[in-house]
Amino acid sequence: MLREIKCPQRLPRQLHFVVDIAAGVASLTEGKFDASVSRTAKGKVTITFNEPFARAPIAVGNVVYGDLGLILSVESVSTTAVAVRLYDAAGADQDSDFHLLVQGWDAVDQT
Fold first, then answer.
1. Could you tell me which residues come within 8 angstroms of residue 106 by beta carbon, excluding any fewer than 6 positions away?
2. pTM of the model
3. Which of 18, 45, 36 is nearest to 99 (CA)?
4. How distant, in Å, are the alpha carbons of 6, 10, 30, 90 from that of 38?
5. Angle at CA 36, nearest 5°, toward 1 and 102?
6. Considering the chain, what is the average pLDDT of its residues?
7. C-beta separation of 38 from 24 below 8 A
8. Cα(45)–Cα(83) distance, rounded to whole angstroms?
């Protein structure tokens, strides 16, 4: 059963994304109503939120099982977008499907 996070003082919001990259084109298979995705270069993807956060969120990602040996790095996070880089152990950029969890807040204060 899905339950909403209830904390009106902090106004938390959690978004889940599953990004599929096929033939050099990125698409969202989960979270497509919350954001848009673009592959800016091989191994580089930007997810832009439909509704910006009040302050920069936290983003954690992981490559999809089966793409072993690839590394996902969250390169930058802002109130409007997350930039991700995928690469192999040698440092060469690689396309791969991945999951991204974004936890943010719609309140500007932080305590």
1. 11, 12, 13, 53, 54
2. 0.86
3. 18
4. 32, 30, 14, 24
5. 50
6. 89
7. no
8. 6
E strands of the chain, at which residues? 12-22, 25-30, 35-41, 44-49, 58-63, 71-77, 81-87, 98-105
pLDDT band with cut points at 50, 70 and 90 for residue 74? very high
Is the pLDDT score of 4 beyond 90?
A: no
Indicate the residue type of 16. H
End-to-end CA distance of the chain: 30
Per-residue pLDDT reduced to its tens digit, 30-66: 999 999 999 999 999 999 999 999 999 999 999 987 6
Report residue 25 as tokens: 């084109």
How far apart (Å, rounded) are the C-alpha atoms in residues 87 and 49?
Answer: 24
